[in-house]
Amino acid sequence: xxxxxxxxxxxxxxxxxxxxRAAMGRVSHLGVRSDVRGRDIVAPAADMRNETGALGLYExxx
Length: 62
What we know:
Blueprint: E1 4-6, E2 10-21, E3 24-32, H1 55-58
Antiparallel strand pairs: 1-2, 2-3
């Protein structure tokens, strides 16, 4: 489990994660305190060489 923290605000968020394989992790839920929402961007990454077509998941979102 990870805990996100901001200077002057303390603990503000918790992503629920798990490791499925040695080279991959998943975020299943992301909780952020309501008073600090909208301050930062969460940007997922995809290996463009991934043979499963992972990039296609993100392309429709721009």
